[in-house]
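Illustration: Hydroxypyruvate reductase.
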Amino acid sequence: MRNLLETSFRTALEATDPARRVAAEAGRLDPPPTAVLAVGKAAGPMLAGLERAGLRLPGFGVTRYGHGVPLEHYELLEAGHPVPDDASVRAAERALELARSLDPDDHLLVLVSGGGSALWCAPWGLELEELQRLNRALLASGATIAEINAVRKHLSRIKGGRLAQATRSRVTAWLVSDVPGDDVSTIASGPTAPDPTTFADALAVLERYRIEAPAARAHLERGAAGELLETPKPGDPLFARVTNRILLANADLLRAVADFWTGEGWRVHVLSDRFEGEARELARFHAALVGSARAHGFPDRPPFVLASGGEASVTVRGTGRGGRNQAFLAWLAHFLGPEGAWALAADSDGIDGNSNAAGAVLRPDTLARAAELDLDLRAHLSRDDSHGFFDALGDLVVTGPTHNNLNDLRVLVVGA
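Result:
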């Protein structure tokens, strides 16, 4: 069963290859683009797709360190993620420079994927060092990606529609979505999208999660007082020359995994591509579904497969390693108890939190095997060390960079 779970994950990733999708769509661009910018963990394959289609344009891409792919024509830079660094700043400044150089008759193609918030970093109102500290605090706070990006957009000269604002050209953005609901203003902090959030919203996020960031707060307070120019909003005339299109999303990943399991003869229930919230509570919900199915046949009588997507969060209070998917599985093991289940949870980019794993596999005998090794699940959960727990069991899923980013995939096999 473990082999089936991991094969379903890898098959779904192959079916949602960004290079293949970009190559298939590139010839339909009208008018043809005259320049290109790419940002995110899928920047490499998206540019490779342009090369397959025969498009060799002025421009470049930036991706996370270690996520590069061989390209014949395009330059692919690497920068810091999830915390921006000096290379992120240089990449953003260069992207803005190219955008500003274009004329109204030009057509800029922007290839956007998750990770772009860190990889394009043009600090506004604070120095990079404080922005780095703020990013770390936000990522550990349990805030949703939309809340985090509301803050990022108001501390940047490229996010929140400001890249589109910086150019006079026509803009087409193709997006590989890594956010629940596929909100184009949230993916990579929406460099080409209207921003519905405000300086006041960003301040409220810092208050909600009790994050101290003096320079950021001072800047956001000036903006909330009307002393700074807001991000361009929905209805701004500039977006008449901008097209934002979702090219791939978590729903595509879920369809692919459902097709795989259906082909293996299983009934499949796809729950949602939009789950958010704490990994602990998401695990509680999935465990309740399994328990209900086993006891009463709701939502179905076993055997069947449950699949879900979206993005959980973890409010980090310990010093261990892990990520939201490994945390989900550790809590799922806790809530299911000794009976357990087969399950996989993994991040489609191949990197779950601060670990080197994409995720992990849960087995029906996970708790029994943990007891044999003197592994205390609750102790690991208390110090946010789900990675250490699954690593000791040999149940990590390690893929390396997948060059994609379609959010999380969870698959539970509810046996007879």
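Reading the tokens back as a structure: The CA atoms of residues 176 and 248 lie 5 Å apart.
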